[in-house]
Each structure stands twice: as C-alpha cells, then as structure tokens.
C-alpha cells in the first residue's frame, strides 16, 4: 500500500504539505493543491511510466497538479483508495483492467469527474478509454499466418485482466478466420511478467510438434520467451518466431528487435486528461468511450521463413496501421 511518504516523494513536496492538501488546509497554495489523482494497478515498468508521462505532460500544460498512486488490483483496495480521496479532488483517472469498479464508483462515485482507463466494464456516467486489443492481436496473428506459420502458440496475461482476455480473443479469431481451430495445448496462462514468459516458453518447447511461432500477451512476457529460447539454443527468428504486444521503448533494442503491436501509451495518458477536462463541458450528457487504435510493428523477431519459402530478411522495422473492427466507442 502506498503511504503518505510515497505520495510526498513522488510529488516532490513535504509529508506535511500532502497532509494539508488532503485536509484542505488554507495554508496550501493554489499551485500546490491537488487537482487530479491518478490510480494505477502498478507504478513499475515502461508501460505505466509512459502512461504517467503522458498524463503529466497534459496536466502540466493545463497547470494541474497530480498525485499518482497504486492499488493492489483488487476491488477492496480500489474502494479503500477511492474512499481516501472522495470529495478532496477535482478529477480522478483510474486504470481498472482487472477490477470491476462498478461498486467502487457507483452510485456515490468519488465526488469528482472520473475517467477510466482500460476498464473491465464501461460504467454509466464515467468516461473511459480502451485499447483496440482484439484488432491488434488479430493483425499480429494474421501477419504470422501470412509468413506461413501454422502452429502459433500464445502465452496469455492474467485471466481477470480485460486487456489479456481481449488479446486472446483476437488471437483465436485470426486462427479461426484462417480455418484453424485454437488448440488448448498451445495456450499457456501467463501474468504479463518476464518469468511467466520464460516458464511458458519452456512448456511450449516440450510440445510435439513444437510451435513455429509464439505470440506473447505483452512485451515483458515476450522478453521472457526470448530468454528461454536463448537458453534452449533455439534461434529467433530462424527456428521460431516471437511477437509481443504494447511496443515498450526497449522492444526495438532487444536481440533480435521484437515484432509487436504498438500501443501509444503516451497518448493514452494525454487523452485521459483531455477527456477528464472535457467531461466538465459534457456534464449531464451520456458518458463517452474512446478506443485507442494500435499499429503492427514488424521487426526481426518474426522473420523466420518456413521450409520451402525463400525471401530476404525483413527490414529492421516496418509499421502498419491496424484496421479497426466496428465496435462501440470513438476511435482515436
């Protein structure tokens, strides 16, 4: 649990100042007073740091002050965090990919305009932004199928995480569109970590026949996959193709550079602030839901050529916009 000292350190103010802000002390200058609280399920890793950077950049342009905190990805912890800020802030940005926030935010809410990032479910009265996960995963698998791969495995994210479930849906959809039925033995449960990628790849390497491509639910999982394949002396991409999702900054610097689906994490954060401020103008209207589009980024890790197929090695990086499937929400 994040303490008041953690908040003070992240905000670069004293513990006493944070205490006065939350107690609405008149001694706190307007420039210091908290306006927007950001609650994320994690504060570590390049994905969350980029989202926070986007929120911070947009907030600074509008002279807003942020407090960033995390919760333990449970409904109870989210409710406790929301109780702590209820009535004390002007705006709230909450990322809830694995938590049903309906009880925490309804019916009383938090007394402030609220934007949900990658919500488990869309909530009446709250604006939200999701990632085009199904489209991105489908585009990735179609690309691998186009290279001639047929035994395409996946290492998923947590079962409760909406992003992970949607990416698995896109993976299965692309296979079925190509006349291939998804195989349970090629779907390994992971948790978005390097360790789960490493352990999942070790399991897949024992399958007979083994996969000729592995699609990881995120880039950190893919990093673990690359480590396992290196230890097993399996060449990437010559022997087995690997792909990720998110396009974290380090993905292009891996060996080989990682083919992935780009999510504009910076824009995700910036859009959240814009939607939050715009919700004041839209007060009384219906909640708005935006969907952040994705981009297929082709690098060397998927470049294995199936037997009998000749071709030059792909360029270091090639980007392709992902065609959007009509769904609810405004595409951005």
Key features of this structure:
Rossmann fold; LacI family transcriptional regulator; 332 residues; transcription cis-regulatory region binding; alpha/beta; 14 strands; 10 helices; four-stranded parallel sheet; transcription; Lambda_DNA-bd_dom_sf; seven-stranded parallel sheet
Can you offer a commentary on this structure?
With 332 residues, the protein is α/β, with parallel strands linked by helices. It has two domains: 4-131 and 265-292, Rossmann fold (3-Layer(aba) Sandwich); 133-263 and 294-326, 3-Layer(aba) Sandwich (Rossmann fold), CATH 3.40.50.2300. It has helices at residues 4-11, 15-22, 46-61, 75-85, 102-105, 133-146, 162-177, 194-204, 219-231, 265-281; strands at 36-40, 66-70, 91-95, 113-117, 127-131, 152-155, 187-188, 213-216, 241-243, 260-263, 289-292, 294-298, 318-321, 330-331. The strands form three sheets. The chain has a seven-stranded parallel sheet, with helices on both faces. Strands 7-6-8-9 form a four-stranded parallel sheet, sandwiched between helices. Strand 8, helix 9 (219-231) and strand 9 (241-243) form a beta-alpha-beta unit. Helix 3 (46-61) packs across helix 10 (265-281).
